[in-house]
């Protein structure tokens, strides 16, 4: 009888120990799985965050390009004197315009571009006397101003463009890489005060 009880006790002890070990292993496995899932989730969140930042940057760059193009296409706005920056779809316009009406038109054009959430107007109206003085600028001053604006424009290879002005008539010659660059150079020249007309003799490579 005593031997039977002893054997039974050993059996129960073995079963209990086995159960404890099994439970411990299961808990350890569960903890490891939870940690792995947590790490994967954290990594996924970081990747999503990075992708959102890249996507946001690309959207802002695209919006800036679209606003610049829209301003260039608007004949009554001298877009070469307007700087455009976009941050989180908020467009900031800065620089100079000839009148308050031009400033309002520039803001209106920017607001009409797809993707623009709002527009911050930091445009300044030039002094009327300054504008009048520029209107009577000589050919040399006109040529210098056009060259400076071409040099400041990142889309036009200014070193390849020759500028000559005679009685307010500007002649552009030289070579550019595309029709778009030729049209951009002509647009910049036309926007300068004192220019009566522009003869575009630029050749596309």
Automatic annotation (TrEMBL):
Coiled-coil ranges (or none): none
Pfam families: BON (PF04972)
Alphabetical list of SMART domains matching this protein: BON
Keyword set, alphabetical order: Periplasm, Repeat, Signal
Domain annotation BON: ranges: 59-127, 138-205
Keyword Repeat: yes
Main localisation: periplasm
Subcellular location: Periplasm
InterPro entries assigned: BON_dom (IPR007055), Lipoprotein_DolP (IPR051686), Transpt-assoc_nodulatn_dom_bac (IPR014004)
GO CC terms, sorted: periplasmic space
UniProt xrefs under PROSITE patterns: BON
Signal peptide residues on this chain, from the entry's feature table: 1-28
Keyword Signal: yes
Name the record gives this protein: Osmotically-inducible protein Y
Organism: Kosakonia cowanii JCM 10956 = DSM 18146
Lineage per the UniProt record: Bacteria, Pseudomonadati, Pseudomonadota, Gammaproteobacteria, Enterobacterales
């Amino acid at each position: 009888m005593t031997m039977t009880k002893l054997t039974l006790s050993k059996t129960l002890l073995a079963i209990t120990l086995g159960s404890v070990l099994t439970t411990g292993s299961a808990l350890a496995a569960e903890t490891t799985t939870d940690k792995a899932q947590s790490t994967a989730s954290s990594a996924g969140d970081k990747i999503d965050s990075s992708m959102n930042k890249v996507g946001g940057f690309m959207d802002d760059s695209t919006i800036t390009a679209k606003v610049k193009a829209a301003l260039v296409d608007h004949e009554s706005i001298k877009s070469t004197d307007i700087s455009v920056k976009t941050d989180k779809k908020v467009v900031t316009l800065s620089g100079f315009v000839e009148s308050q009406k031009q400033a309002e038109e520039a803001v209106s054009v920017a607001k009409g571009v797809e993707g623009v959430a709002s527009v911050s107007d930091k445009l300044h109206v030039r002094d009327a006397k300054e504008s009048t003085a520029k209107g009577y600028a000589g050919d040399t001053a006109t040529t210098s101003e056009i060259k400076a604006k071409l040099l400041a424009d990142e889309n036009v290879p200014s070193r390849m463009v020759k500028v000559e002005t005679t009685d307010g008539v500007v002649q552009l010659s030289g070579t550019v890489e595309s029709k778009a660059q030729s049209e951009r150079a002509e647009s910049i020249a036309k926007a300068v005060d004192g220019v009566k007309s522009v003869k575009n003799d630029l050749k596309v490579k």
